[in-house]
Amino acid sequence: MEVLSVNVGAERAVAYTGAPSGVTGIDKRPVATAVRVAAPGVAGAGGVAGDAVCDLRFHGGDDRAVYAFAREDLDGWERELGRPLANGVFGENLTTAGVDLAGALVGERWRVGETVVLEVTGGRIPCRTFAGWLGETGWVRRFTQAASPGAMLRVIEPGDIRAGDRVAYVRRPDHDVTVSRLFRAVTTQRELLPGVLEAAEWMEREQLEIARSYCAKHDVR
């Protein structure tokens, strides 16, 4: 499992209809150097240095600090759409190889490279900006039906990420709620919603334990 490329995008005016903010950072390109990744700590801010986050209502923030998409899924879309798709074209910060993003468990953690630890928080919900950028008819519906939306990630331990960095599991939670299952529950299969609460409860318990540990370590009363 590895990072094929780290991709960033500059803010630019929207040249198509659909982006309410009028600007977008979706046009992400691979960079040759290491890129700093850290928890933004601010709603709407991104966690990848040099990467623009423009629609602050739905993008960025600690739970969506980094976005990963699998090269294998891009290859599948290349065949379906009949055109080449470069790394970063779906607006992903990390293009991965060998990582099962659809099957990733909500709350699982990866070590990327030497120092960075990322935590899976869910999948990407397709929007009008995404559809306008690709220019494909019925894109939101098609992407949704595929139920392989890539993974949104929280930064647990900051550091630098570069192309070629290995990805390794740090831990996997004791529930079975995958990114794909959560995505389907909030889009096309609402009957799955009661079952995905298991992941939400697990992560809530985890955050409580982290807070308790911090308070004990720093003698906070």
- Ranges where pLDDT stays below 50 over 5 or more residues in a row are 210-221
Q: Roughly what fraction of the amino acids lie in strands?
A: 15-25%
In DSSP terms (H or I, runs of 4 or more residues), the helix count works out at 5
Shape: globular
Q: How can the largest sheet be summarized? A: 8 strands, mixed
Tell me the radius of gyration: 17 Å
The end-to-end span amounts to 42 Å
Count every beta strand, where a strand is a DSSP E run of 2 or more residues. Answer: 12
* Overall SS class: alpha+beta
Overall pLDDT:
84
Strand order of the largest sheet: 4-1-7-6-10-9-8-12
Task: Please provide a written account of the structure.
The chain starts with a strand and ends with a helix. Residues 210-221 have low confidence and may be disordered. The strands form three sheets. Strands 4-1-7-6-10-9-8-12 form an eight-stranded mixed β-sheet. The chain has a two-stranded antiparallel sheet with strand order 2-3. A two-stranded antiparallel ribbon has the order 5-11. It is of the alpha+beta class and 221 residues long. It is globular and about 45 Å long. It contains five helices and twelve strands.
Key terms for this structure?
single chain; 221 residues; alpha+beta; 8-stranded mixed beta sheet; two-stranded antiparallel sheet; 5 helices; 27% helix; 23% strand; disordered C terminus
Fold blueprint:
Elements: E1 2-8, E2 12-13, E3 23-24, E4 29-30, E5 35-37, E6 66-70, H1 71-81, E7 94-97, E8 109-112, E9 116-122, H2 128-134, H3 139-146, E10 151-157, E11 159-161, E12 167-171, H4 179-186, H5 193-217
Parallel strand pairs: 6-7
Antiparallel strand pairs: 1-4, 1-7, 2-3, 5-11, 6-10, 8-9, 8-12, 9-10
